[in-house]
Every structure is written in structure tokens, then in C-alpha cells.
Specification:
By secondary structure, the protein is mainly alpha-helical. It is built from 22 helices and 8 strands. It is globular, with a radius of gyration of 32 Å.
Length: 552
């Protein structure tokens, strides 16, 4: 129920956001802003005017406008794409490095003669590995953001909307791999390629890590807790601490310069920075992408709460607590530590909505695979059918191997540590157990995949297909039941369109020449008259009166 609830919540969240967005677009007259009003970037115009060949006739306005051809844009896009792929590869390499670290530390600790040291090997390697991943994530994020700004400037997008979309796609593609790659490794790949007794795949002479008898969900939860909560704490400290430190340093530097000036002038007085406008002058300046970090933080948080809700059910609760704190911290930061930003129009939240939609779709798939592969839900369901003649689940889940041949000199308690409830008195020292549906020590070909392996694999695939089809059907049904446009707004749009058509038909004759068709001045004057008539209608006047902020 919890899994279906998160899928339903994410769908409803996106649908109601779309409704709210469309309502704001209508009230603020932004439905066609990006197509008709979004202006060219000064950098784009400068690049175009530096070469007389870089211009074209606009097919709509039929006037000459700046234009950069494909021969100029494509090489820069290729360079930008290669750089992004290279940075993502570096992040994947860092995750592989942490995996190697975990394998080496785990091997060293488990081979120790200290019982306490060896018994905590799994928890120690998981915790320290998660901390290393968090440190790498924060460092790579700071470095890559500067690279992404440079690459986006290099591409020279035409409008501010195109600039923001290009920058958002670069950053999210990198941050998705940066934040989630280590979690995806634990959820879906850890222990899958470790091998089996007599045929282990080793890294620098040490065996790869494997999941505990109960699966990797507990370790996945630990990884999520450290990365998600650690990221929230570090981001909050940065958001409030960095502006405070910068403003304090800037103010002290200004006071020192003032003391030097007063000392150089005989009898000069020190002008203290005490008026409001002087203090505001030394506040931090908001950059062009001042809200990008806020959007990115919320989208990454949305991914934590939806992609891995099965492994960490408390993720929405921690996200809620963080958002409550974040609201107050952002209010303090924007009101007391930063200068007032320039107001800018925007039709919507840009590419962020599409990213949220993609994340919600991926959440269904990751949840299905978490249940089918990472947990033992399917295994226990098959065991409960009583078709395999096993008395306990552990006999069904574990495979036997020749301990004498593969683990010479190891006592039974060490070989079976953490695997079963077997004790020194009841175990067979010559037999060990390991996770895997393979043929046992008494079978003709020990180590080969057994029939149970294929049964379990088939059951997992069937579950994934049925689960994701059911959830996607529920998503589609909810998206259909929640209309994108509020009914009153839709009616008002139809009313305005009717008034336009009626007025144009009654006041303008059919054009006889081409000059009549492209008379822009007459068209503008006519549209102003239509707009004044629309605003004077009772339905529209009522809508404006209900939204005084919009009319103002």
C-alpha cells in the first residue's frame, strides 16, 4: 500500500501542479510568453552581429534578426556533450573506487583474529563507504556547476528560456548519477557478481562484498540515510553560512578601507556604515541562476522520496522536516543577506516539470525491481508454495558447498557466521552454505545454476511486469481524472476567443491585397480594441476583480 501510495501521490502532485501553473499563466497573461515575448539574449546578439553573415529574415515578422547557423552551434553542442559524458564517467569511476575500498576494508577486517573487529566489518565498511560517497558527491557538485555554466555560455543559447533549459539538463543529468549511482549499486548490483565457493570473483585478491542473509535493504537504508540527511544538513549550512560569511568579510573590508581613508586625511572623520541603504549595498548580489539551487535541491529530494520509498519509508518525513526548516532559512537569507533580485517573467518552471515526470516514472520501475530483486519477497512467496520440499526458508535460500575443499582450516562457526542458526554442535564442518540458487555439494554439478534459479528469475520478471503495468494504469487513470486546466479558466478562454472572432468578423472586411494582410500597425490597434472589449465583459471583469494582484 505504501508503494502504491507514493506512486499515486507523485502523480497527483504533478497533475495539480500543472493545474495551478495553467491558472497562473492565464491570470498573468503568460500562455504564449516563450513564443511571442521571450527576447534574445544579449550574448547571442553580440555573437551574431560580430559576423554580418550571421543573420536571417524572421519568417513571422519578416524583419532581419540575429541568427547563429548550425555550423556554429553544432560543434559547441558536441564539445559540451562530450564534456558532460566525461564528467559523468568520472563520477562512476569514483563510485567504483569506493566499491574497491569497501572490498579491501571488508576483506582486511573479516580476516582479522579480533572477533569484535571482524564481526563489525559489514557495518563499518557500509558506514565509511557512505560517508566517502557523500564527500565525493558534494565536491563533484561544486566543481561541475562551474563547468556547466562555462559549457552553457559556450553553446550561446538564443533566449533565456533556452539557456535555462540547457543548463538544467546538464546539471540534472550529472547530479542524478552523482547522487544515486552509489545507491543504485547497492540496490541492484552488490553481490550479483561475487561468484560462489571455488569460483569467487576477486578485486586485488579480496572477495567482493555480498549482501547479508536478509538481503541488502538494511545497507541500502543506511546509505540513503547518510546521503539524504547529510546532504540536507550540508546544504542548509551552506545556504545560510556562506552569505553570512561573505557579507561579514565585505563589511569589514569596507570599514578598514574607510579607516585608511580617514587616517590619510588629517582630521578626517570615519563614516560608519549605519544607514539602511549603506548596509544593503554590502549585501550579496543574486546571480542569474539564483533559484537554480533551490529547484535542484527539491528535485533531488523528490527522487529520494519516490525512487527508494521501499527501502527508506521515512524519507518523506525527513523531507517534510527539511522543507519546514528550509522555508525559514531561505526567508532569512533572501530578506537579510541578499540584495533584491531583478523581477523576470517565466511561462512555467521550464524543464523541471519534465524532469519530475521522468523521475516519477522511474520511481515505479525502481520500486518494482527493489521488491523483486533486492528484497526476499519473491523468494519467500515461492517457498510458501511447498513445491520444493524444504523445511525452512534458509534451506531453500542457501546452497551447500564443500567447506573442506574451498575453506581449508576454517572452523565451522567462522564458515557459517551470519548464515544460519547452526551451532558448533549441530553443524557439519565439511559443508558450508552460501546464498545462491545453485546445485549443492551432493548434486552432479556443484555450483551450476539449479532449476530453482530459473523459477525465481521467472517469478521476479512476472512480478515486475504485472506491478509496473498496474501502477502505470493507476497513474494514467489519475492523470485523466484530473484535468490540466480548471473549468472556469477554460470557459473564460473560450469566451475570449468567441469575442475576438465576432469582433474581427464584424469590424474588418475581407482583405483584398497582400498589403492589407501584413499591416502590422492596423493589426496592433485592432487587437488593443479587442482586448479592451474582452476586459469590459462581465465574466472577465469578475475574474479580474477576484484577482486584484493580477489587475495591478
Amino acid at each position: 500500500r505504501r508503494v502504491h501510495g507514493m506512486a499515486l501521490w507523485s502523480t497527483l502532485f504533478l497533475e495539480f501542479w500543472k493545474r495551478c501553473q495553467n491558472q497562473l499563466q492565464y491570470e498573468w497573461d503568460l500562455f504564449d510568453f516563450e513564443e511571442s515575448q521571450d527576447s534574445l539574449r544579449p550574448e547571442y546578439e553580440e555573437k551574431s552581429r560580430s559576423n554580418e553573415k550571421f543573420s536571417r529574415t524572421n519568417p513571422v515578422t519578416r524583419s532581419l534578426e540575429p541568427y547563429l547557423p548550425s555550423s556554429y552551434i553544432v560543434p559547441r553542442l558536441v564539445m559540451s556533450s562530450v564534456t558532460v559524458i566525461t564528467m559523468i564517467s568520472i563520477v562512476v569511476g569514483a563510485v567504483v573506487g569506493v566499491v574497491v575500498y569497501r572490498a579491501i576494508i571488508f576483506g582486511v577486517m573479516t580476516s582479522s583474529h579480533n572477533e569484535t573487529f571482524s564481526s563489525t566489518a559489514s557495518m563499518t565498511t557500509s558506514a565509511t563507504g557512505a560517508v566517502l560517497n557523500l564527500a565525493a558527491i558534494m565536491i563533484f557538485s561544486q566543481i561541475y556547476q562551474r563547468i556547466a555554466v562555462f559549457l552553457t555560455e559556450l553553446e550561446c543559447p538564443r533566449t533565456e528560456t533556452e539557456y535555462e533549459d540547457s543548463f538544467i539538463i546538464k546539471m540534472f543529468a550529472f547530479e542524478f548519477v552523482n547522487y544515486y549511482s552509489s545507491i543504485i549499486y547497492i540496490a541492484f548490483f552488490k553481490g550479483r557478481f561475487a561468484g560462489y565457493p571455488g569460483n569467487y570473483n576477486k578485486i586485488f585478491g579480496y572477495r567482493q562484498e555480498e549482501c547479508k542473509p536478509g538481503g541488502c535493504l538494511m545497507e541500502l537504508t543506511m546509505q540513503l540515510v547518510i546521503i539524504m540527511i547529510g546532504k540536507q544538513f550540508i546544504n542548509n549550512v551552506q545556504e545560510i553560512g556562506v552569505p553570512l560569511v561573505k557579507n561579514y568579510i565585505q563589511l569589514k573590508v569596507a570599514e578598514r578601507e574607510e579607516r585608511k581613508r580617514a587616517a590619510s586625511n588629517t582630521g578626517g572623520e570615519i563614516n560608519k556604515v549605519d544607514t539602511r541603504w549603506e548596509k544593503d549595498y554590502f549585501l550579496g548580489i543574486q546571480s542569474r541562476n539564483n533559484l537554480f539551487g533551490e529547484y535542484l535541491e527539491m528535485v533531488i529530494q523528490f527522487g529520494f522520496t519516490t525512487l527508494f520509498a521501499t527501502a527508506f519509508p521515512l524519507a518523506p518525513f525527513f523531507a517534510f522536516i527539511n522543507n519546514v526548516i528550509e522555508i525559514r532559512l531561505d526567508a532569512f537569507k533572501f530578506l537579510t543577506q541578499l540584495q533584491r533580485p531583478w523581477a523576470q517573467k517565466a511561462q512555467d518552471i521550464g524543464s523541471w516539470y519534465s524532469i519530475l515526470d521522468v523521475v516519477s516514472i522511474l520511481a515505479v520501475l525502481t520500486t518494482a525491481f527493489l521488491i523483486a530483486i533486492t528484497s526476499t519477497y519473491i523468494d519467500r512467496a515461492l517457498f510458501s508454495t511447498d513445491r520444493y520440499g524444504k523445511d525452512t526458508f534458509w534451506q531453500f535460500y542457501y546452497t551447500t558447498a564443500n567447506a573442506t575443499a574451498y575453506f581449508p582450516g576454517n572452523p565451522c562457526s567462522t564458515t557459517l557466521r551470519g548464515a544460519t542458526n547452526t551451532t558448533l554442535e549441530t553443524c557439519r564442518p565439511e559443508v558450508c552454505h552460501y546464498i545462491g540458487y545453485r546445485q549443492g555439494v551432493n548434486d552432479p554439478e556443484p555450483g551450476d545454476k539449479s532449476k530453482v534459479f530459473w523459477h525465481v528469475l521467472t517469478a521476479r520478471l512476472i512480478f515486475v511486469i504485472i506491478f509496473e503495468h498496474c501502477v502505470f494504469f493507476v497513474r494514467a487513470l489519475m492523470a485523466y481524472l484530473v484535468p490540466d486546466m480548471p473549468g472556469d479558466i477554460k470557459v473564460q478562454q473560450l469566451r475570449e476567443e468567441h469575442i475576438k472572432r465576432t469582433y474581427l468578423y464584424e469590424t474588418r472586411a475581407v482583405p483584398e491585397t497582400e498589403d492589407d494582410v501584413i499591416d502590422d500597425g492596423a493589426d496592433d490597434a485592432l487587437m488593443e480594441q479587442v482586448q479592451s472589449i474582452i476586459l469590459s465583459t462581465p465574466s472577465t471583469s469578475k475574474a479580474v476583480d477576484e484577482n486584484p494582484g493580477t489587475a495591478a
